[in-house]
Amino acid sequence: MKRWITAILLVLMMGQASAQELKMRDVFKQMPDSLLPYLTQNNRLDFIDFMDSNMKAEVQNQLGGNSEMIALADDSLSIRMNPSTETDMLLLSPVEPVDSVSQVVVVIETFRIDSIYGESKVNYYTPTWQLLKREPVLSEEQKQRIQKHCLQNLFKRDEEIINKR
Questions:
Q1: Which of 70, 68, 11 is nearest to 38 (CA)?
Q2: What is the pLDDT at residue 11?
């Protein structure tokens, strides 16, 4: 009998621990408009609805142009804000908790001038969108994942230009 009770409690605790892990869609919904002034909260919700419906996730942004969500997963998303700017977000669990949070949001903004020049800017936030004052301690794999996004966005632009020729 004690084993059954212990087993049930263990299953309940594991379910509760996994329920505390956030998903990117939840964090993205709560993002303040000031962090991505191109997009309103309705734009962000539309992106998620379109992706869930397997539709092209494209919205008219605040500047009158089109922005498109390219990918949405439990721990990441990618948005082409305009032809020269891409924003990627990763939801990572750092090696050590930062400011008492066990997950951080990595926002990678890549700005491309042309097919040769571009630059990525990386910022770290709590899931409630507070800017972290210091870079979290990440595993090598996590660091490589961030670096891959920075480089990948620059290479995507080259590929798009080549494919248009």
A1: 68
A2: 44
Residue 146 lies inside a defined structural domain of this protein = yes
pTM beyond 0.90, yes or no: no
Q: How many domains does the chain have?
A: 1
Calculated CA dihedral for residues 26, 27, 29, 30, nearest 10 degrees:
120
Q: Find tokens 């009158």 and name the residue.
A: 64
Domain that holds residue 51: 22-164
Does a structural domain hold residue 43? yes
Helices in 39-138 by DSSP H: which ranges? 41-52
pLDDT digits (tens, 9 = 90+) for 54-79: 999 999 999 999 999 999 999 999 99
* DSSP SS3 for 1: coil
Query: How far is Cα 27 from Cα 75, in angstroms, rounded to an integer?
Result: 10
Query: Please, are residues 153 and 118 in contact by the beta-carbon 8 Å criterion?
Result: yes
Residue 90: name the closest of 107, 69, 111, 114 by CA: 107
Which residue has 């408009």 as its token pair?
Answer: 33
14 is a domain residue: no
Spatial separation of the C-alpha atoms in residues 18 and 78, rounded to whole Å: 24
Note whether residue 1 is domain-resident: no
Residue with tokens 């097919």: 115
